[in-house]
Write a structure and sequence with these properties.
This protein is α/β, with parallel strands linked by helices. It contains 10 helices and 14 strands. Helix 1 packs across helix 6.
Length: 314
C-alpha cells in the first residue's frame, strides 16, 4: 500500500489486486475489468450497490472494439475527446463478458492523466483489456481529488499487495461527462466539463439532458451523492461559525468561515471537493457547509448537479 512504480501497479492489476491512481477528474480505485473477484472487492470496499455499473477505462480508442461494435458516433466522440473526461455508454459487444459491469450496455472512457494513461497502456501490454476505476471513496461521499483524500476514505480496506500511485491534485476536480449513445437520441446522463453543445457539434445530432433509469445506473446516479459529513446547504443563510464557499465576488457573511473563493467556474470545480473536505475537518459538530452558487453555463450545470445531490436529504 506504499507508492510504487507504474510497472508494479500494472502487474498488480493483472494479478487481481487493486490500484488507487489519479485521473484528470478524480482519483479512482482500479481493478482488472474482467476479474470478477477483483471488481467485487471494489464494490465491497466502496460499499457500492451492485446495480451501480462500473466504467471501463482503456488507454485509447484502439481497444474500444473489444467492448463494443464501433459506430460513427463513438468514433467521432473518441477522436474529438479521448483521451479526456468523456465517458460513453455503448451497447456491449459481449454481454457475457460485461455482465458484472453493465449487462447489455457498457461505459468506456480513456483518461488523459499521464499516470493513468501509462498505467493502462502497460496493463494492456500485459494482456489486460480494461480497468474499472470508480472514485476511490465510500459510495455517496465526497470524491477524492488527492491521494490523501482517497486513503482517508478507503485506505484501511486495502491489502498489502494493493498499490497506490500519487499524481498530486487532479486537474479538473469533478467527474467525467457521461453520454449514452445507445438510443435514437443520445442522452447526457451525467454532466461534466465536456458540454452537451460540444457533443452535439461533434456527432451532428441533438442530445438530450436525461435522467438515470434502471438500465443507466452508472456512476453518480443516486439522487443523494457527493455528500460531505456535515450538512451542505445550497444558497442558504449561514450562521456564525458555518463554512462558506462561493465565487470571489460574493462577500463573506458575518461570522462565517470562508473556505474557498474561486475566481472562475473552472476554479470552482477544481476546488469544490477539497473545499468540502476541508469544511468537514474545520467545523464544529453542529456546523453546516453553505455553498452559494448558481449558473446556467455548461460547466455551471455540471457543478450544480454535484451540489444539488450533495445537499439533498439533509
Amino acid at each position: 500500500m506504499i507508492p510504487q512504480t507504474i510497472e508494479v501497479a500494472a502487474e498488480a492489476l493483472i494479478n487481481g489486486h487493486l490500484v488507487i491512481f489519479p485521473t484528470e477528474t478524480v482519483y479512482g480505485v482500479g481493478a482488472d475489468a474482467l476479474n470478477t473477484k477483483a471488481t467485487n472487492r471494489i464494490y465491497e470496499i466502496k460499499k457500492r450497490p451492485k446495480n451501480r455499473k462500473l466504467i471501463v477505462h482503456i488507454s485509447s480508442f484502439t481497444l474500444a472494439g473489444f467492448w463494443t461494435e464501433i459506430n460513427k458516433d463513438l468514433e467521432a466522440l473518441a477522436r474529438s475527446f479521448w483521451p479526456g473526461p468523456l465517458t460513453v455508454i455503448v451497447n456491449s459487444k459481449n454481454a457475457e463478458i460485461s455482465k458484472d459491469l453493465a449487462g447489455p450496455k457498457v461505459a468506456i472512457r480513456s483518461p488523459s492523466n499521464e499516470i493513468a494513461a501509462e498505467l493502462l497502456s502497460k496493463f494492456e501490454k500485459l494482456g489486460g483489456k480494461g480497468v474499472v476505476a470508480p472514485s476511490a471513496n465510500i459510495f455517496g461521499t465526497v470524491s477524492p481529488t488527492t491521494l490523501e483524500a482517497a486513503l482517508d476514505s478507503i485506505g484501511n480496506s486495502l491489502k498489502p499487495d494493493d498499490i497506490v500511485l500519487d499524481g498530486g491534485r487532479c486537474e479538473i476536480g469533478i467527474e467525467s461527462t457521461i453520454v449514452d449513445i445507445t438510443g435514437f437520441t443520445p442522452v447526457i446522463v451525467r454532466p461534466g466539463i465536456i458540454s452537451r453543445s460540444e457533443i452535439e457539434s461533434c456527432i451532428k445530432k441533438i442530445v438530450s439532458q436525461g435522467v438515470f433509469t434502471e438500465d443507466n445506473f452508472f456512476s453518480g446516479s443516486s439522487e443523494s451523492h457527493y455528500k460531505p459529513q456535515k450538512a451542505l446547504i445550497l444558497n442558504g443563510n449561514p450562521r456564525p461559525g458555518d463554512a462558506f464557499i462561493a465565487m470571489d465576488e460574493i462577500a463573506t457573511p458575518a461570522g462565517s468561515l470562508r473556505i474557498s473563493r474561486p475566481k472562475s467556474e473552472t476554479q470552482f470545480a477544481f476546488e469544490l471537493y477539497e473545499s468540502l473536505r476541508c469544511s468537514d475537518k474545520l467545523l464544529a459538530d453542529n456546523g453546516q457547509i453553505h455553498v452559494h452558487f448558481s449558473s446556467n453555463s455548461d460547466l455551471g450545470i455540471a457543478i450544480m448537479n454535484r451540489l444539488v445531490k450533495a445537499s439533498s436529504k439533509y
